[in-house]
Amino acid sequence: SWCYLASVMDLHTRKIIGFCFSQKMITDIVVNALNKAIQSQRPGKGVIVHTDLGSQYTSNEFQKHICLDYECTTIEEAIHKAGDLLVQVGCVKPPYINGMIRREQETSTDIGLGVMIPHGTEDTLNFVLKPEISIVQIPHGVSYHGNTIHLVIGISSREEDPLQELMQITDILLKPEKCHQFLNASSTQKFIDMINQNYVEEG
Questions:
Q1: DSSP assignments along 61-124, one per residue
Q2: Is 77 exposed, middle or buried (0-12, 13-18, 19+ CB in 10 A)?
Q3: What CA–CA distance (Å, rounded) separates 78 from 72?
Q4: Residue 58: what pLDDT?
């Protein structure tokens, strides 16, 4: 059967600094290869990535994880939307959403600043297919325990799974000058650009 290879080359040294194999020609192998290159080289500001023009290289897969201008009247609706995004992109199975809602009923995941990070209960972790996040922006906010929530970050993860995007977002939210921009991002690409820029600046 076919085996596909995605690789990242340093054009200065001509060395392969990241690669990934897969039996399917999908976006994930390109993203994984690039992540391995970043982790091994830790590039600074100004790095340029030149790619092939295949759809796997040019797709903005992460945009499917983001919902802008969502309108809702209850926090359960917002959590369900965050969970549904995770289902649509193949990160969790549908029963995980009920675990997210039950978790919130047991313990609030409101972290302040108008942000909450719902995730599944322990008994629904077996419905996690891969670690990822979803982002639901609620411009007009939704009331929750006396606070107003403007951003819901859904999490599909087992305890041992690293979530680089979530670490970058947390870092952004702790910086007042960036927090406001992030909460009020006008496009899915703006969310992605801010996460990527923070990684370049802070690592």
A1: GGGGGEE-S---SSHHHHHHHHHHHHHHTTSB-THHHHHHHHHHHHS--EEETTEE--B--GGG
A2: middle
A3: 7
A4: 47
Q: Are strands 147-156 and 132-144 parallel, antiparallel or unpaired?
A: antiparallel
What tokens were used for 70? Answer: 């969502």
Give me the residues of the chain with pLDDT under 50, please.
53, 55, 57-58
Helical packing angle, 188-202 and 164-173, nearest 10°: 90
Would the CA dihedral through 82, 87, 93, 94 be positive or negative? positive
pLDDT at 55: 47
pLDDT in tens, 66-103: 899 999 999 999 999 999 999 999 999 999 999 999 99
DSSP 163-185: -HHHHHHHHHHTSHHHHHHHHT-
Tokens representing 190?
């703006």
Paired with 98 in beta bridges are none
Active-site residue list: 119
Residue type at 58?
A: T
Q: Are 72 and 142 in contact (CB under 8 A)?
A: yes
Which amino acid makes up residue 154?
G
Instruction: Tell me 128's DSSP state.
Output: B
